[in-house]
Amino acid sequence: MADIKFEVKEAFGVLSESAKGWTKELRSISWNGREAKYDLREWAPGDEMMGKGITLSKEDLKKLKQILNEMDL
């Protein structure tokens, strides 16, 4: 499997943290030199490992925000 290269452009915030120190975060990340997208996933302390996550375009993130604003939380 080829190495995946990423560059964190901006970290927006931490949603939660596990007992082992992994944090679920929303970040802007450039994957393999491509344009940065919004990314939600878990990260190990020091970013040495990452969990599975989702990558969203700006349009996806706007729609998600709209959906969340309409929910009764």
3D structure, described in words:
It is a single chain. The chain has a single domain (6-70), classed as Transcriptional Co-activator pc4, Chain A, CATH 2.30.31.70. Helices cover 18% and strands 48% of the residues. The chain is built from 1 helix and 4 strands, in the order ββββα. Strands 1-2-3-4 form a 4-stranded antiparallel sheet. The mean pLDDT is 95.
Secondary-structure element order, as H and E? EEEEH
The structural class is: alpha+beta
End-to-end Cα distance: 41 Å
How many separate helices?
1
Question: What is the percent of helical residues?
Answer: 10-25%
Shape: flat
Question: Mean pLDDT score, rounded?
Answer: 95
CATH topology grouping: Transcriptional Co-activator pc4, Chain A
Biggest β-sheet: strands ordered side by side in the sheet: 1-2-3-4
Judging by the overall fold, what is the CATH architecture? Roll
The whole-angstrom Rg is 13 Å
Q: Approximately how much beta-strand content do the residues carry?
A: over 45%
Number of discrete domains = 1
CATH class placement: Mainly Beta
Task: Compute the number of strand runs.
Answer: 4
Largest sheet: 4 strands, antiparallel
